[in-house]
Amino acid sequence: MIGPDDEEGARPPEDGRPFAEQVLERRGFAITAALFVMLGGLVVPFVGWVAGMVMLWRSRAWTTKQKVWATGGPILASAAVLLVLALLTANWKSTDAGVGGSPVIPVVYDLGSTAVVLLLIGYAAAGTWLLWQALRPEGRRA
Predict the structure, then answer these.
(1) Residue 76: inside a domain, yes or no?
(2) Domain-embedded: residue 14
(3) pTM here?
(4) Which terms are listed as keywords in the entry (predicted)?
(5) Among 1, 21, 91, 111, which residue's CB has the most CB atoms within a 10 Å radius?
């Protein structure tokens, strides 16, 4: 028989707060949130990313400033790269090989797929940074 006083049984929270609230402060939740931000959009497109963002904003492992940068940084970086590419390709002649015959620079109609790839790379980088922040010792967190 397992009871509340059993060593391996369920124990009530020590400080009287609900268990769900305590989970938000655990390191394992922060690591899971960082992994969802990093890989969620790749494994389950859009839904995985949304789950990662919800977990990120619910977690108490990061400051609000860090959460804002992790959420908006990849979007801003992708937008900046797309703007530069759009400006580069605006007046160039397109061929089957790409802009000006270069297969490296995408043509205007390729910018949508380029944006998706840039966002996946950006959120992988943001998730890696969040994971690094979550794994740092308490005294060294910014």
Answers:
(1) yes
(2) no
(3) 0.71
(4) Membrane, Transmembrane, Transmembrane helix
(5) 111
Whether residue 19 has pLDDT greater than 60: yes
- Name which of 20, 44, 35, 24 is nearest 70 in CA terms: 35
Residue 11 lies in a domain: no
Neighbours of 11 (CB within 10 A): 10
Q: 3-state secondary structure string, the chain? A: CCCCCCCCCCCCCCCCCCHHHHHCCCHHHHHHHHHHHHHHHHHCCCHHHHHHHHHHHHCCCCCHHHHHHHHHHHHHHHHHHHHHHHHHHCCCCEECCEECCECCCCCHHHHHHHHHHHHHHHHHHHHHHHHHHHHCCHHHCC
Residues 6+ apart with CB under 8 A from 86: 108, 111
Its domain, for residue 75, covers 19-140
C-beta separation of 34 from 127 below 8 A: yes
Say yes or no to pLDDT of 95 above 80. no
User: Mean pLDDT score of the chain, rounded to an integer?
Assistant: 78
* Domain assignment of residue 52, yes or no: yes
Number of domains composing the chain: 1
The arithmetic mean of pLDDT across residues 133-138, rounded, is 82
